[in-house]
Design goal:
- By secondary structure, the chain is α+β, with helices and mostly antiparallel strands.
- It has a domain at about 215-245 and about 260-300 and about 305-330: Hypothetical protein, domain 2 (Endonuclease III, domain 1, Orthogonal Bundle).
- It is built from 18 helices and 7 strands.
- It is globular.
- The two termini are about 40 Å apart.
Length: about 375
């Protein structure tokens, strides 16, 4: 989250590595928790008292959670008004410029997302990425393209309920990893001879995140041991069978998308024939939905990444690859790594190196992973 729109981390360049209470509080504030539930509920989610939370946040950031939430919302509204001067602050669609620290090439992230688009909820065409959003107060649609005037992305955001402006922006920033500090990451990774040419070829490469951690968890299970194309097909069937139709008022903005990703309760109650995959993976997906409903799996920043991994690994059919993938894309863990991933193994083989030490890439192994994933076949 940025305290002012267009800036990156509220603290040092190492902010993304943090997973303490203050960092998680900031993530929840960015997702609109204070706006819709208040500071007391935010503190309860984090397992501490409201007074303690206020003291911690003020000590570190110089402002209360309530003030940070207000300032953040005002900055977003100001940006929307400047981009849509004829619209009221709460009107839709809104146009926003979401900035990022350079270097940043949003086309790289758009290509990654294009390869993984799920029909019904996502579409890429004409250099624009469109997807539906399931937000706390209703549905939304975001149409994203590279910024025409600055480093970052331009967004046309259509919301069923204007109260969802703050969480929608936070989730788009997370999806495009706009709060990364690429200079720090690139400098560290380029010190490794294996990664140096990859970093030079794609400076500022980001780790695409998610707009919905539950969606990411389901898609991670679907993608176990099958191709990206195969995962798109299977996930598309699940979306068609269980996805909720987008609100009529958003249909024009969403086209050709027409659904939002299925909710945990829809997945938990789904008949087995919805899931065109082996039985164990079916059971894993249903178990994720049930665990969310029962409170045994908390996917937001109210718990640490380590606690999330523990909760995921307790579910049937969830191993380290899936847990780390969810941590990387769903919770923005910059050091998540998938050593057994076939794409990583293939890339290292392509680069023909005798020894590889991923520990050298800490604490930015997720960024190293994406550089490896981008290594083309026949690279050397």
């Amino acid at each position: 989250m940025s305290v002012a729109l267009g800036t990156t981390a509220p603290g040092s360049p190492d902010w993304d590595r943090r997973d303490d209470v203050v960092a998680r509080a900031v993530a929840l504030i960015a997702d609109g928790v204070v706006e819709r539930a208040g500071v007391t509920e935010l503190a309860s989610m984090l397992g501490i008292g409201a007074r303690q939370l206020n003291e911690l946040v003020v000590t570190e950031l110089g402002a209360t959670p309530a003030k940070i939430a207000r300032d953040h919302r005002r900055a977003i509204v100001r940006s929307a008004i400047s981009r849509s001067p004829t619209a009221a602050p709460t009107a839709s669609p809104l146009r926003l410029a979401l900035e990022a620290r350079p270097p940043y090439d949003p086309a790289v992230t758009l290509e990654f997302l294009a390869q993984r688009t799920v029909p019904g909820i996502e579409h890429v065409g004409g250099g624009r990425y469109t997807r539906t959003l399931s937000l706390p107060h209703g549905h939304g649609v975001a149409a994203v393209e590279p910024s025409a005037s600055a480093t970052g992305i331009d967004v046309e955001l259509t919301l069923e309920d204007p109260r969802d402006l703050t969480p929608a922006v936070a989730r788009l920033r997370r999806l495009f990893d706009l709060d990364s500090d690429p200079q720090v990451v690139d400098e560290h990774l380029a010190a490794d001879p294996l990664l140096a040419p990859l970093v030079a070829a794609s400076p500022g490469r980001r780790v695409p995140g998610t707009v919905d951690v539950f969606e990411t968890a389901v898609r991670a299970v679907v993608g176990q041991q099958i191709s990206i194309a195969g995962a798109r097909t299977v996930t598309g069937r699940i979306v068609r069978a269980l996805g909720e139709p987008i609100e009529r008022s958003l249909a024009a903005a969403a086209a050709p998308c027409e659904l939002v990703f299925p909710s945990p309760d829809a997945v938990a109650a789904a008949p087995p024939d919805v899931f065109a995959m082996p039985g164990r993976r079916k059971a894993s997906i249903v178990a994720i939905g049930r665990a969310v409903l029962d409170g045994d799996l908390r996917l937001d920043a109210s718990i640490s990444r380590a606690e999330l991994a523990s909760q995921l690994l307790a579910l049937p059919g969830i191993g380290p690859w899936t847990a780390d993938y969810v941590a990387m894309r769903g919770r923005g863990d910059p050091d998540a790594f998938l050593p057994t991933d076939l794409g990583v193994v293939r890339a290292i083989a392509e680069l023909r190196v005798a020894t590889v030490d991923p520990q050298r890439w800490r604490p930015w192994r997720a960024y190293a992973l994406h550089h490896l994933w981008a290594v083309p076949h026949g690279a050397v």
